[in-house]
């Protein structure tokens, strides 16, 4: 039987946040749910805007416009995006947040806030403030000279100023209040920070560092709430030990369990904190179990039409990502692959993530 992975949902009272999370993850339906349902939910809660924070899993191109080496605005990245155009997304096509926007019917992509070509009239439907290589820990972002989470939140303030000028203060406040905030990060805090740089291991044990990351997340959520946010979906950390790059470094053909245990533990702490936040504030929160969904796809690829779970589509698929993937040959059919490069998922995997999440939510809603 096709297993679905649960999504932990925190909410005081009703199932409103479940429906909001359902709306968020509806994008990538391949018949799992009718797109009409997404638009019904959007209309019911007046959701027209998605605001995105995080790392390369949700960066739609902000790093193109800052001084950093962490970029993907070159082929083969984006080869399956509209017109085969690289945009700075670390995948072959669209990200989950792009499909989210498409599902509710206002735009087919979520633009990068720093893109100078961003049109003011597109602001009411959302923006991504995310920055590849960022994390909950400011130090993680500083290592690669990318946008830290507090910096991303400062750009949210700039967004609000522009939005007020465009639609007026009351309408701007309403848009922020009904917007769905998405936060997706945590991977780089370990893979590019704790396990590579000596600074944090001297200051924290692994568990202490996880607690520190969760406190950084909680501070960010407080800021979001203060700026008018009321609805938040947090995407959990994926199975770090199953990334092709990690397996290459660890010289193993199977997932590195010590890395996976760290991801499981961090996700558990994130869920606990979200539960506390949802019961002590008016912030509605939901948690998406990316770990379980990706792990299930790796363990049962045939269920999803996949066949390659051990390496990425770019180059050898074992070490290349970012600049080392530039101009390389790719696999003939990325639809069969979990990973696009040695770190990041394919567009197909983003679809699987959403489809499995939708199934779990539909069970809760009896949809």
- Spell the H/E element sequence: EHHEHEHHHEHHHEHHEHEEH
Q: Note the overall shape.
A: globular
Helix content: 40-55%
Largest beta-sheet characterization: 6 strands, mixed
Instruction: Please state the oligomeric state of the protein chains shown.
Output: single chain
Q: What strand line-up does the widest sheet have?
A: 1-6-5-4-2-3
State the total count of DSSP E strands.
8
Strand content range: 5-15%
- What is the first-to-last residue Cα distance? 19 Å
- Helix/strand-derived category reads alpha/beta
Helix count, DSSP H or I runs of 4 or more residues: 13
Write down the Rg: 19 Å
Mean pLDDT rating:
87
Low confidence ranges:
1-15, 22-34, 358-367
Pfam family, one: Lipase_GDSL
Protein name: GDSL-like Lipase/Acylhydrolase superfamily protein
Family: Belongs to the 'GDSL' lipolytic enzyme family.
Organism: Prunus dulcis (Almond)
3D structure, described in words:
The model is unreliable at 1-15, 22-34 and 358-367 (pLDDT under 50). The protein is α/β, with parallel strands linked by helices and 367 residues long. 43% of the residues lie in helices and 9% in strands. Strand 2 (50-54), helix 3 (96-104) and strand 3 form a beta-alpha-beta unit. The chain is globular, with a radius of gyration of 19 Å.
What key attributes describe this structure?
globular, two-stranded parallel sheet, 9% strand, disordered C terminus, 367 residues, disordered N terminus, alpha/beta
């Amino acid at each position: 039987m096709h297993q679905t992975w649960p999504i932990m949902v925190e909410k005081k009272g009703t199932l409103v946040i479940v429906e909001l999370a359902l709306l968020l993850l509806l994008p990538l339906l391949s018949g799992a749910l009718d797109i009409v349902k997404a638009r019904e939910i959007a209309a019911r809660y007046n959701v027209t805007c998605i605001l995105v924070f995080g790392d390369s899993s949700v960066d739609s191109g902000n790093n193109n416009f800052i001084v950093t080496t962490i970029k993907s605005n070159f082929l083969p990245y984006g080869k399956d995006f509209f017109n085969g155009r690289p945009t700075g997304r670390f995948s072959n096509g669209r990200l989950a947040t792009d499909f989210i926007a498409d599902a509710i019917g206002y735009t087919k992509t979520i633009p990068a806030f720093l893109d100078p070509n961003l049109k003011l009239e597109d602001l009411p439907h959302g923006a991504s403030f995310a920055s590849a290589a960022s994390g909950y820990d400011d130090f993680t972002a500083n290592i690669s000279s990318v946008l830290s989470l507090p910096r991303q939140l400062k750009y949210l303030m700039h967004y609000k100023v522009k939005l007020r000028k465009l639609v007026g203060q009351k309408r701007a406040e309403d848009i922020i209040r009904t917007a769905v905030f998405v936060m997706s990060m945590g991977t780089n805090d370990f893979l590019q920070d704790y396990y590579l740089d000596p600074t944090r291991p001297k200051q924290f044990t692994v568990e202490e560092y996880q607690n520190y990351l969760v406190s950084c997340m909680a501070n960010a959520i407080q800021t979001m709430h203060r700026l008018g946010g009321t609805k938040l979906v947090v995407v959990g950390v994926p199975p770090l030990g199953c990334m092709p790059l990690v397996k290459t470094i660890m010289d193993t053909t199977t997932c590195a369990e010590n890395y996976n245990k760290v991801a499981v533990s961090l996700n558990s702490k994130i869920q606990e904190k979200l539960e506390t936040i949802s019961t002590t504030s008016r912030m509605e929160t939901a948690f998406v179990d990316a770990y379980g969904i990706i792990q299930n796809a790796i363990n049962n690829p045939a269920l999803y039409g996949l066949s390659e779970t051990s390496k990425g589509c770019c180059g050898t698929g074992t070490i290349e990502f970012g600049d080392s993937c530039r101009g390389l040959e790719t696999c003939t059919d990325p639809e069969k692959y979990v990973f696009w490069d040695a770190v990041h998922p394919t567009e197909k995997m983003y679809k699987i993530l959403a489809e499995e999440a939708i199934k779990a939510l539909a069970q809760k809603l009896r949809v």
